[in-house]
Amino acid sequence: MIGLGLRLLSATAAAALAFALPATAQDKVKIGYAISKTGPNAGGASITQIPNYEMWVKDVMAKGGLKVGDKRLPIEVIEYDDRSNSEEAVRAVERLITQDKVDLLFPPWGTGLNLAVGPVFNKHGYPQLAFSAVTDRAPELAKRWPNSFWLLGTSKQYVDALTGLLKKMRDEGKISANIAMISISDGFGIDLSQAARKGFTDAGFKLAYDKSYPIGTQDLSPLIGEAQRSGADTFVAFSYPPDTMALTEQAKVASYAPKVMFLGVGVGFPMYPQRFGANVEGIMSLGGWSKDNAATQGYAKKHEEMFKRGPDRWGSQIGYASLQMLEQAIERAGKLDRAAIIKELQSGTFDTVLGKVKLVDNMMQDNFWLIGQWQDGFFVGLAPQRAGVGTPVVPKPAWKN
Amino acid sequence: MLFEVTLSGVTLGGMYALVAMGLTLQYGVARIMNLSYGELLIAAAFAAFWFYSGLAVSPLIGLIVVPPLAFALSYAIYRILLQPLVRRAKTRDALEVDSILATFGLLFVIQGVMLALFGGAYFSYSFLSVPLKIAGATVAANRLLALLLAVVIGLGLYFGLTRTRIGTAVRAVAVDPVAAQLVAIDVRTASALAFALGGALVAAAGVLVSMFLTFNANLGVVFTLKALVVVIMGGVGNLLGALIAGLILGLVENYVAVFVDPGLTLAATYAIFLIVLLVRPQGILGRSSR
Fold this sequence. Notes:
The complex is a heterodimer. Chain A is α/β, with parallel strands linked by helices. In chain A, 42% of the residues lie in helices and 18% in strands. In chain A, the strands form 5 sheets. In chain A, strands 9-8-10-11-12-15-16 form a 7-stranded mixed beta sheet, with helices on both faces. Chain B has a single domain, classed as ABC transporter involved in vitamin B12 uptake, BtuC (Orthogonal Bundle), CATH 1.10.3470. In chain B, strands 1-2 form a two-stranded antiparallel sheet. The longest helix of chain B has 30 residues. Chain B starts with a helix and ends in an 11-residue tail after the last helix. The relative contact order of chain B is 0.22.
């Protein structure tokens, strides 16, 4: 799959091979990563993250290799499955560093695993460009681990952006002050619903329904029914992909069409419009896409050609941008000196698919969309206010059969 | 509202029952604690997905095509992989342990094949997701179909097992495989048939479930666990028991979700499970063995 890349799934095989390969002077760049190929995280990892890694390696190899100093070096990839387990992820990252002696590491998928491997990345001084982690502790973590970069923002950022949009709609008389909210009782749902509970009430909204549901719930129609009976104009769900699908389907079956329908992870997945067609119109979620950005359009097209499916409309483009930043930081550092690369990442300005990116305190600024909405088959960014921002469609159109 | 919640609880329960009935045959009759059970369900779901989006064929056709294939595959698995274990096992307990180990390996084989073919991403499609009104309450047609099929299969197999000669033989094997031989029952064939039938059932469940649930190659274990709870609650090897236990779980989950708190549905499920284990360790309709 990856030209010269080595793809190893079994730990023992990798260890054996690492022995067999003689350590030569820098004639290639070894990049390693542990990612969830199996287990509950695999669904997210294989949509948002793994394609980016494969695509970037292919792109760099097509240019003749990774530019280090005045040479272009081929990339060798070592990949492990962390089985969605944090101990396994930590072990795999340690093995990549100490046994495989990789030059660079890519981060694992998700908030939990990025937090778990953070200390290892930090201890060995590897840059950690986490682009699939949302945590309110990001600013604090960036201080504690200056090698870590938190590119997907904090829960508060998302909630503030959503609250801002809802407030405007309410002030214009488009929606009532009642919100029905449900959330998955797992990291993402707990974090965001906590932030939202505070954000919504501070902004004068009332939570007419506010419940969480356990991971793996296979019938969400009771929650849809309750949200419907609560009479709220706005329905907010901090859900995981399978639930996002089920909520959309069950809302449609129950003809529950709130004026604002905000759902969690999965709305930006390519399978979402594929499955629901015109019915995605008006549905809001995290992330967003710029209509006028040729670079992201090109990225999406390439993604589709390579993997036969489009990217996730939330994290994918940020992920690819983070790899471009890493590539440029290495080029500017002129050598595989990790401290220099980290320093460049902290202070440099980078040319990415998102446009020009300069990190402040190891975090992105207004470089990406926090909230988006499906409009005419395109997931338009609605917040923050930046070039190309769309106007929200309220109320959400009725379901079509 | 009560009716609506009951209706959705019954459809959810029907799905649970449908998912569990194959396992109750495999575990109850063939004595194979099949840990790769959920993987076969997901494989069938992938097959249905492929039928629908690859060949543009209705998953209902998949419902006709996939279970016989699963029957053949399960029969082959039993004959080739599991029969040597049956032959050398001295006791039922020994067979149970051996079968757990063997099917645990099989789990990874099936999962690995699916990962290689489809990757780890989520899959889903829309089919029959149209609202049906029943006495003022709304239910999705695809979920209702799963419920109806669970009832039809449950009752059909129940009568098949109690009213036919082969069925009686299969039940005899479930009760006592050694004594069954004394009355000239071919225990090996009966077990292989039961195991294969279980495979066909889980495949049917997989096709139906794929119409409304989002799945990926890693989701099998979720269904194995749920099926195991239902099977043990209903009484190992008892199809009607599985149907009743499934319905109880579905109803309890949805009642708790609406009238108590959706966060407590899992706790309620396992509380019920625990109560059944304490009061009737053999399961709701199970007969105490030995």
